[in-house]
Amino acid sequence: MEPEDAYQGFSPSAYGAAPAYMPPAPAGAGMSGAAPQLRPLSTGEILDRTLAFYRRRFWLFASIGAVPAVVLTLSSIARLIVAAYRHLPTALSPGSRPDELAGAMGSLMLMQVYFLPATLLFLVAYAISHAATADAVSRITRGLTAGAGESYRAVRSRWLRWSGIALRQLWSAIWPTSIGAVLLFGGIALSARARSPMLTALAALAGTICVIAGGVLGILNFLRNALATPAGVGEDLGVNASLRRSKELAAGRKGRIFLALLLVYVLQMVAGGIQIPLVMIATNSRGAEHLLLLAIELVVGFVAAMLVAPVASIALCLIYVDERVRREGYDIEVLMQRSLTAVPAESFEA
């Protein structure tokens, strides 16, 4: 029989011989009625179960992912309104005068500064959504019922914690590349003053190596911190403790985390590929047709953001659970919790 949830049993043909099932817990009291089936998973099984979770609980995770998608779409609409108001398409068209081009670029820079709060708002919305997804996955893996509203209510009071984790993760990824970029442009600028083509070429080469090394270090830093939000949700940890916990669980497991995020990147590229023709057509259109295409592009972007973002959260949460099963016997802990919950309250009365 095909399992109802990814952790509530599995198909022997897909995963090999199935171990003995855990005894089922009674329905009610927020339980799904079937005991969770936790066991160590390979990287391929993690990816497979990520898609299985998403497919079987599609509306749950799509509802959770809709919140940051709405924020992103509203921000995009605001950017389009400002761009239209400042006549950027006209100023950036072929044949524009240099002063018009400079004014348009200045307007673009002003837009980025003006919409910095919108970017931060999206980051906060995504961080809360990631935490809500972690809560929902945690409930499902423990054999409990899960709902989008219930998961959001469980994490919303600690929104500052999830935002702090997201900011720390982002900063850990970008600071090495930023230092490499500073070294690159600084070296080129200093060597250019010496008016030596050879020195300029060597500075550019050295700076490029620094940028690449910084990028690799940034990716490694992000992979170390990728499990921080699931750890914070699952163990009620603060920002610093969540990041330390992530580094502990991710030690030696960065490859599987990278593959999980690579899957999400591929899905994002597919979603972006759908939008590219719309953008190209909208660039060459005018009037009502232009507005219609922009509206369609916004709708496609909203749907893509709503559908793709939860996949990364689910994968990271499953990796977190799997590492706890491997290292700490989390499956036994869950089974004991369910056994205690299943005992009637009268049994504890003297």
From TrEMBL:
The chain crosses the membrane at residues 58-85, 105-129, 170-192, 198-220, 257-280, 292-321. Keywords: Membrane, Transmembrane, Transmembrane helix. This is Glycerophosphoryl diester phosphodiesterase membrane domain-containing protein.
